[in-house]
Specification:
alpha+beta; 2 strands; elongated
Length: about 70
Amino acid sequence: AFQQKCYQKIEGFQRSGKTILFVSHDLEAVRRVAPRTIWIRHGQVQQDGPTDEVLQDYHHWALTDGS
């Protein structure tokens, strides 16, 4: 119930045009709330763009050489 309430609050912010910095290792949560994603690894930006593209590239990296 608490998580659902949080998602509703985030959606309200988005509808009003506000920007939210959402930091998470939960990729499904990122997919749910973020139209744009910045992937940071060891303090360096690896990619910045549409969430689906960034997460696809992250998954590819994690499966091939992610350590």
